[in-house]
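Below is how a single chain appears once it has passed through the pipeline. First comes the sequence as given, then the structure the pipeline wrote out for it. We keep one example in the README because the format questions we get most often are answered faster by looking than by reading.
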Amino acid sequence: MNDCFVPLNLKIFPLAHDVSEYLKEWPNDSQNKIYDISFLNPELILFFQNLKINLRETFIFWSWDTKKHRYPHTDGNWFPDEKIVAKRQCGINWNFTPNSWVEFYKFPDSLPEIKRFNDWDFASFWKDATEIIAVWGGSENPIIFNPQIPHMVRSHESVHRRTSITLRFHESYETLNEKLQDYKK
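Resulting structure:
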């Protein structure tokens, strides 16, 4: 199994409306916005319910500035105060911006730098992660995304923002892979 992502052959458009509707009234200087799952395509919600896949109550809509300098990161605080690895559960991502992609990196031999953006959004930055081990560039099909592998959004020089969504689940990367076995590309 690919540890970074798994392409899915899932032909249901994920949103209830056109992508442009979600970009209206965008918060200043924000990279993301949380939406209730009522903004998803009802057919997609039913699809997950029929497979007994536990979809979380909200999803993330991203409008990512691809030109800001960043380091590869893993989602979540890798080593919180309790000294327990606090990894985020996996998600399914759809990319709506051609000429943009996600690079996945080999874990470095160093510890990450933790950055907290607000109460629910934080990441572990891996400044020494330089070796690319996988690339997801698709905008046609979604993927099961493992947020615990160092990754970073990239784009062609003409693209300044990458629009995508992440559906979140009460599932691990492994259980979601198992439940979507028949939909792997």
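The first strand starts at residue 5 and ends at 7.

See the next section for the split statistics.
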